[in-house]
Amino acid sequence: MIYEELTALAEEKREEQKQFKHNIHVCTAASCLSSNADKVKTALESEVKARGLEQCCKVKGVGCMGLCAAGPLVSVPEQEKMFQTVTPVDAAAIVDSAVEDRPVPEAIFLDSKIPFFSGQKKIVLENCGTADPEKIEDYVAAGGYEALFTALTSMKPSQVVEQVTKSGLRGRGGAGFPTGLKWSTVAKAPGSSGKYVICNADEGDPGAFMDRSVLESDPHRILEGMAIAGYAVGASRGYIYCRAEYPLAVKRLKIAIRHAEMLGVLGNDIGDTKFSFRIEVRLGAGAFVCGEETALISSIEGKRGMPRPRPPYPAQYGLWGAPTLINNVETFANIAPIIRNGGAWFAGIGTEKSKGTKVFALAGRVANTGLIEVPMGMSLREIIFTLGGGIPDGRKFKAVQTGGPSGGCVPEQYLDMAVDYESLASVGSIMGSGGMIVMDETSCMVDVAKYFMDFCMSESCGKCIPCRTGTVQMFEILKKITDGTAEQADLAMLERISEVVKFTSLCGLGQTAPNPVFSTLRYFRDEYLNHIAQRRCAAGVCSIGKAVGVGA
Amino acid sequence: MLGFEAKAVPPSDDKRWKIVQGTMRRHGHDPSALIEVLHTVQESFGFLTDEALKFVSESMTIPYSKVYGVATFYHFFTMKPPGEHTCVVCTGTACYIKGAPALLKSVHDAVGIAPGETTANGKVSLLTARCLGACGLAPAVVYDGEAGGKVTPEGIRERVMEWSVQKAQEVGA
Question: What is the chain A residue with the closest CA to B33?
Answer without folding.
Answer: A302
